[in-house]
Each structure stands twice: as structure tokens, then as C-alpha cells.
Amino acid sequence: MQLMRLYTIKKTLLQHGLDELIPPRWLPWYAKGARYTAFWLRNKYPDKSRGERIRLALQSLGPVFIKFGQMLSTRRDLLPPDIADELTLLQDKVPPFDSTLARQTIEKALGLKRIDELFDEFSTDPLASASIAQVHTARLKPGGEHVVVKVIRPRIDATIHADIELLYTLAALVQRWLPDGKRLRPVEVVKEYEKTILEELNLLQEASNGIQLKRNFEDSRSLYIPHIYSDFCRKNVMVMERIHGIPVADIEALHAQGTDMKKLAERGVEVFFTQVFRDSFFHADMHPGNIFVATDNPADPQYIGIDFGIVGTLNREDKRYLAENFVAFFNRDYRKVAELHVDSGWVPADTDLEEFEVAVRTVCEPIFQKPLADISFGIVLLQLFNTARKFNMQVQPQLVLLQKTLLYIEGLGRQLYPQLDLWQTAKPFLENWMQEQIGAKALFKKVRANLPYWSEKMPEVPDLLFDTLKQLKHLPQQQQQWISALQQQQHQQHRSRRYQLLGSTLIVTGTLLPLYPVSGWYGVAMAGLGMFSFMRGWLISSKPQ
Question: pLDDT (tens digit, 0 to 9) for every residue of the chain, 545 residues total?
Fold first, then answer.
């Protein structure tokens, strides 16, 4: 199956002419030879642009490749505009599946004989279609609430499982044969990706994620999460409030309504850091197709988030480590950055801190005090990769989602307000968070949180204190008894070993003496005495103390 899938991938790439995008001088002789062996696979789309061919190829290969294209679509600093524009269509313009199948899926999942038992209206034309699911508009009975119904694509799980198995095979080969394979830990990265994409297939999980995010941002002016009708949610169907807003990628429409773009960009950074550091629960699929902007107050813009299939979490140690690293970066304390990497175990303990500090400074110093438009994060990421390879830094699979989300946030910020000073926007937030974690405010919160437990246990404290003092009073006498018992045990063990050694010697000697004619019965007697001595030693050692 994997060989067939590999052939399908090769066939798709060649039939869309993607091999023509690689300059011949970059291809080794064996790659050129492999191309000629598939002479029957020709470019079927010579009249289409390179961006459209890339989009169609990723679209044909399925959800795993579509997700990759969605991430690339936010990186306009790394891609030519024509390719970036085409990849943007992968966010919510994937060809839909038959609406009849969608109706049948909804009826079966919700136990309906006909779909109009639940909905007064149901649109057969999908509102949006993505890599894993598509969305239809509807109106609920009896209240008439306008909703959207999300339906998983039929038989999509088989395709995803096949691609995941292929990725595992490729990751194992990379880990075994490439010089940096073990350090990059590709198998663990694929495992983390498998977990997230399989969770995206479960709409019950997505519904619970959305409910949690809505609770975290209740009454927030920065982010609005639509209401989810949990009674009508199943593993392959989800019903959610319909929202109205401008897609965040529609820059012209945002300008036309007079949106405060600077505040919008800053709130994007605020929303991200709030989710990561305050809640430890963040939307990890924040590509432009999942983010809208409310139209009710352009001067005070509010984000609207949808599609909660992929969320990320951080444990306390990772969160604290990241926050300290960010603050150290913003303060240009590269020595602290180097020490944190060593303390966290991400680089070996024997790393030369001075050399590592110089390397981090070389990479990071040029990016400060510049607007986002002047920063080439592609070059920065390449330099960081080289630094990681030099110091044997290991990839942390638990942070892959966070890294991907940071790429999305940077891409959005670049589109919305290129002059955004990302560092000055994030630094006050992180410094305030650090103060809440380690300052007087943090101490007060911990005391207040533990107060119910302490008040419950407080009546027991006098008895526990009396028992402890009573035990301390008798401690010297108990210690003397323990010492005497230990000395007696050691003396007993010494006697046992002496008897056993003597017994073993007599047994061996008594066994050998009968071999000599002059010995007579001496050997038998000596062996018997040896057996007696050995048993005597064993009885002494087994005597209870």
C-alpha cells in the first residue's frame, strides 16, 4: 500500500508538471534518470500557472498535503505572490463532495428520518469546503436560529491513515540515514502530527474545544467564539452558531470599513499569548480561513475564531521555560537564553555556554528594533537551524503545534500591519505574566487557592504537633536500640560466615581424602563435620533478630 501511495504521489507531481519548477542544475544524475523512467507521465496542465498547478497537486493528494499548503499560504515572505495567492484557496475553497451524501450523513448521525425534522431550512450548496469537512447553512427548529452544520468527508479517514503510515516510513528512513536524523526526531514529530489530525476527525472533540475556548474568552473584546449546540453534535457532525464577519485575509474590505489595522494586529498577538500563557490552551490552526473580523465596531475590532479541531496545550514547565526565554530574548540577555537551554535539557549539559551565547546573539541581534516587514524570518529560521545542528539541539515534538501557530500569527501580522513591532507588543504581556508567576501577586494567589485545604486541615495541626514532639522525645532511646540491634546483626553475620567457610573447607577436604588409601574413614568424618559446621552457620544467619 505504501509503494502504491508513493507511486501516486510521484504520478501526481509529474502530471502537474511540478518537476519542471526545479532547475535542472539542482538535480543529481540519478534524479534525472528516475524522471526519464516515468516517460509516460506527462504534464497535463501546461496551460495553467505554476501556482495553480501546485495547488491542484496538493489538493489531489488529500488532507495531509492540503494542510501543508495551508501553512505555506501564510508565508508570503518565503513564496512568490502568485503561488501564495493560489495556496490561499486551499483554506476554504477545496472542491466539495456531494450534498446528498452530506444530508444522509447528518440524518444518520442525528437519528433523523428526514433532515427537515430538525431544520426549517438547509442549504444544499456548501458555504465552505475544506480538506477534511464541509459546512452547510441551516435554520434550527423551533427558534429559527441561524446555524452552520459541519460534516466530515465520507471515507476520509482511510486516506489519512494511509498517508500517516507513509510518513512514518519516510521519517524512519530520515532518522536512520540522514546525519541530523536522530536530532530532528522525525518519527516523534509524525506521531505528534498524527495525534492532531486524528483529533480533527472527531467533531465531538472539536465541539468541546470550542466550548472551552468560548469560556476562556467570555465577554472579551479581542476574540469571539460562536455558540456550539452540543445536543446536536456527533463524531462526524457538528452544529454551531452562524457568524458574520470579514475574512481576515480580505485586507481591502477591512480597509474599506475603516478597521483600525494597528489595533487589530496587536490584538492578534495579544490573543495568541493569552491563549498560550494564561490558559495553556491555544487554537493551533489559525490560518486565515479560520479567522474573521467582526463588522460592528471597526475602530475597536474583534476577531472571530472558528474550526477548533486542532488545539495545543503546554505543561507548566514548558510554559515557564518559553516565557523566560521570550523575556530574555526581548531583553537581549543571550547568556540567560543559553543557560535556559542547558537547564531545560534541550542542549547537552557540557555545552560551552560562552560559545552558545555568541551563536544566539549572532542570529537574534539583527532582528530587533525593526518592523515586521523588514525582518526575514526565513533567513532567521535557517540560521537557528544551523545553530541547533552545531550545538546538537534536539527538536521538541510537543512544541511543533506552537511553532506552526507562531508561523500563522507572523503571516497574519505581516498582512494586516507590516509595521507592527512584534517584540514591543508582546514584551509587556510576558513581563506581566512572569510577575504574576513569581512575584507577590503569585504568592497571594497560591495562598488563596490553598486556603480551603489549609482551613480543613488546621484543626488537626495541634494533634500532629503533639505526636511529633512525643516521637522526638523518645528518639534517642529508639536510636540506641536500633544501633544495638544493628551491631548484634553484624556480629551474627560474622559468626555465620566463619562457620560456613569452615564447613565448606571441611566438606571439600573430606570429599578428596577417600581418594587416598591411607585416609581410611578420616575423609568421611571430616565431610560430616564440615556439613555440621555449614548447617550451624546457616542456622545462625537465619536466626530472627
Answer: 667 777 777 788 777 877 666 666 656 666 666 666 666 777 777 888 888 888 888 888 877 778 777 766 765 656 777 887 888 777 666 778 888 999 999 999 999 889 989 999 999 899 888 778 899 999 998 888 999 999 998 888 887 888 788 778 877 877 776 666 676 667 776 777 787 778 888 999 999 999 999 999 998 999 999 999 999 999 999 999 999 999 998 899 999 999 999 999 888 888 988 888 888 888 888 777 789 999 999 999 999 999 888 888 887 777 777 777 777 777 788 888 888 878 777 777 788 888 888 888 887 777 766 665 666 555 565 566 567 667 776 656 556 667 667 777 777 777 888 877 766 777 777 777 777 776 666 667 776 777 777 677 777 777 777 777 777 666 666 666 667 677 677 766 666 666 556 666 655 555 555 555 544 555 556 556 655 555 655 555 555 55
Tell me if residue 285 is catalytic.
yes
- Collapsing DSSP states into helix, strand and coil, what is residue 524? helix
- Predicted TM-score (pTM) of the model is 0.68
Ranges assigned E (strand) in 196-332? 223-224, 237-241, 246-247, 281-283, 291-293, 303-305, 311-313
At residue 311, φ and ψ (nearest 5 deg) are -125, 155
Spatial neighbors of 459 by CB under 8 A, at least 6 apart, are: none
- Exactly one of 47, 285, 296, 333 is catalytic; name it: 285
List CB contacts of 328: < 8 A, sequence separation 6 or more: 334, 336, 337, 340
Closest CA to 151 of 171, 128, 167, 170: 128
Measured distance CA(181)–CA(184) in Å, rounded: 5
Mode of pairing for the β-strands spanning 133-140 and 119-122: antiparallel
The number of beta carbons lying within 10 Å of the beta carbon of residue 39 is: 8
Beta bridge partners of 293: 246, 303
Question: Do 50 and 21 touch, CB atoms closer than 8 A?
Answer: yes
